[in-house]
Write a structure and sequence with these properties.
The protein is of the alpha+beta class and about 300 residues long. The chain folds into 3 domains: about 120 residues, Winged helix-like DNA-binding domain superfamily/Winged helix DNA-binding domain (Arc Repressor Mutant, subunit A, Orthogonal Bundle); about 100 residues, no CATH class; about 70 residues, Arc Repressor Mutant, subunit A (Orthogonal Bundle). It has a 3-stranded antiparallel beta sheet with strand order 1-2-3. Strands 4-6-5 form a 3-stranded antiparallel beta sheet. A 3-stranded antiparallel beta sheet has the order 9-11-10.
Length: about 300
């Protein structure tokens, strides 16, 4: 009998002990966790990202440049890999550097070892023969939060949304999941957005408005694309591109943001809302000096 310890399906901060006896997983955990790893790694960009990090720590902006990806896309990939403990993050002032989690790689290697015996592989077929309810539940297997997964299973039946929750918190769970039905880095005409949403509920206009309102999708001239609420890493990276003591016109600021992001207006407003930027009469400037400027001032005064 061998014990393997790996990230829990329901809570990435907890660990699940999977016991293997005579080549057979003693529970469903090993199969579920294996699927989570395979789904995360079945993406060329994520594999290339891990390859770059194998050579040393990198920031989101550095990874975006090296991999020719947009910073929000890199942040999305890093979040998935971080949940599986394949990468870790270290703060260096305003910069967040990411690096490989070697212990996570060791856990992954052990997990593949669980399925090295034919009898262990055969156990997967037995699991696939589970009742239909289990197959339907797998629709939400990638949802990390157990409460959100419960909400989804309560409001879906046979893959269809039975009703739109009246409670805002539960409704947001539904909207967040529907956003995952759309691919990153792709534009959709409104007709295609409607067709995708109609697979789950007939009131596509309401769902479309909710996706826009939650900033999970953006719309411009009849085209839609998937978005995500601005992360601290994205906003910090944008702030680091601005010079302390300089005034920027809105056009100049838009050009800086638009170099890597489509959601120029949303990001500009978020920088002001969070107090990173101050705006007055169409001019923008950093509200406080960057850490390196403060450090230099302290050194010169000492």
């Amino acid at each position: 009998m061998t014990k393997y310890v790996m990230p829990d399906e329901d809570d990435g901060t907890q660990m699940t002990e999977v016991i293997v006896a005579n080549g057979q997983p003693a529970s469903h955990d090993a199969i579920v966790i294996l699927l989570r790893y395979l789904k995360a790694l079945a993406d060329q960009s994520r594999l290339r990202l891990l390859g770059v990090l194998a050579n040393g720590p990198r920031s989101v902006e550095e990874l975006a440049t090296l991999l020719d990806l947009k910073a929000p896309t890199v942040s999305h990939h890093l979040a998935l890999l971080k949940e599986l403990r394949l990468v870790t993050m270290q703060a260096d002032g305003n910069t967040h550097n990411y690096l490989l989690d070697t212990e996570g790689l060791e856990r992954l290697a052990k997990l593949f070892g669980v399925f090295s015996a034919p009898s262990a592989i055969a156990s997967i077929a037995g699991d696939l023969a589970a009742p239909t309810d289990a197959a339907v539940a797998d629709l939400f297997a990638d949802v990390e939060d157990p409460w959100e997964r419960k909400v989804l299973r309560s409001f879906f039946s046979n893959g269809r949304l039975t009703e739109i929750p009246a409670q805002a918190k539960k409704r947001m769970v539904i909207i967040k999941w529907l956003a995952t039905r759309f691919d990153w880095e792709r534009e959709y005409p409104e007709a295609e957005v409607n067709a995708i949403l109609k697979c789950y509920h007939p009131d596509v206009a309401y769902l479309r408005r909710e996706l826009i309102g939650a900033k999970l999708m953006r719309r411009e001239q009849g085209r839609y694309w998937r978005a995500e609420p601005p992360t601290t890493e994205t906003l910090d990276a944008l702030a680091s591109r601005l010079a302390w003591g300089r005034l920027y016109t809105e056009a100049e600021l838009n050009a800086i943001i638009g170099a890597d992001h489509r959601d120029v207006t949303a990001l500009r407003q978020e920088l002001v809302t969070r107090g990173t930027l101050t705006c007055l009469q169409g001019k923008y400037w950093l509200s406080r000096p960057p850490d390196e400027v403060l450090d230099a001032q302290q050194e010169s005064s000492s």
